[in-house]
TrEMBL record:
Domain of life: Bacteria
Residues that span the membrane, as ranges: none
Domain Coenzyme Q-binding protein COQ10 START: 9-116
Protein known as: Coenzyme Q-binding protein COQ10 START domain-containing protein
Gene3D superfamilies linked: 3.30.530.20
Length: 150
């Protein structure tokens, strides 16, 4: 299963990257997130337990975050929950005096016979994509309000 969601943000790639890469900020900045609990940090990675809402339905997972400040990318590898094994890539590219923020999800949903259908129709379309769109919208509003205030 592959899913890609993108949004243009009127702020520089570095400004958007700084907001998104700070997991400590997510719970305060994203009203649809129930929690983000940092379980472990090393110099290169952050292991977090995370939960968001898709409407009234809570979803939860654990992920390892790897931030690349040079490439302006953020990777998450889901290590617990129904999406265990999912690879997520956040990228931030300059576009039209702003940023094209893009989130790509890759998941080999290993359920016999129904895995591909469940991954695309239920997991991606009904959960991942709506949550990511709401997440990008919140970060866009935060980044653009900071630019306007400056």
């Amino acid at each position: 299963m592959h899913s890609s969601t993108s949004m243009w943000i009127q702020a520089s790639p570095r400004e958007v990257f700084a907001l998104v890469s700070d997991l400590d900020r997510w719970e305060r900045s994203l009203p649809h997130y129930r929690y983000v609990r940092i379980l472990r940090r090393t110099h290169e990675t952050t292991h977090a337990a995370m939960s968001a809402r898709r409407g009234p339905v809570p979803v939860f997972w654990e992920a390892i975050q790897i931030v690349d400040h040079e490439a302006l990318t953020i990777r998450f590898r889901h290590v617990r929950g129904i999406t265990r094994g999912m690879e997520v890539l956040w990228s931030f590219a300059p576009e039209r005096n702003g940023t094209l923020a893009r989130v790509d999800h890759e998941l080999d949903f290993r359920v016999p016979l129904l895995g591909g259908w469940l991954g695309r129709r239920i997991i991606a379309r009904e959960f991942i994509e709506p949550i990511v769109k709401k997440t990008l919208t919140c970060f866009r509003e935060l980044a653009e309000s900071r630019v306007q205030a400056a």
